[in-house]
Amino acid sequence: MITKEKIRIYEKYNGDPDSYVKNAKIRERMVSSEEWDILSGLSQDIRIAAFSHTDPAFVTKVNNRLKEVCDEESTILALRATALYDV
Questions:
Q1: Whole-angstrom Cα distance, residue 70 to residue 2?
Q2: Is 39 exposed, middle or buried (0-12, 13-18, 19+ CB in 10 A)?
Q3: Span 20-29, mean pLDDT?
Q4: Rounded distance, CA 84 to CA 41, Å?
Q5: If you placed Cys at 43, which of 29, 34, 35, 83 could pair as Cys (CB 3.0 to 4.6 Å)?
């Protein structure tokens, strides 16, 4: 389950899994490689949905996936903000 704390850690390491593995403190080692991949994939999908002329079905798919993997609505908003921040 993706939480705001996991997003904060993902942001801290700029989405770089190698940096996370090499440098994360013990208390930060809560993001599994599967969750890291989910965060990366959803970040990319959020940017595509926001800045491309995509099929509405794709946008719906992204929104459904966010609801499926995030623990609450505020986490979805945090992930959207993170994904769109560097653009």
A1: 5
A2: buried
A3: 96
A4: 13
A5: 83
Cβ atoms of residues 75 and 4 within 8 Å: yes
2 by DSSP, 3-state: which? strand
How would residue 85 be classed by pLDDT, with cut points 50, 70 and 90? confident
Q: Which two tokens stand for residue 4?
A: 């705001």
* Sign for the pseudo-dihedral over CA of 17, 71, 81, 42: positive
Q: Which tens digits make up the pLDDT trace of 66-81?
A: 999 999 999 999 999 9
In the predicted structure, residue 86 carries a pLDDT above the cut 90: no
Q: For tokens 């208390």, what's the residue?
A: 27
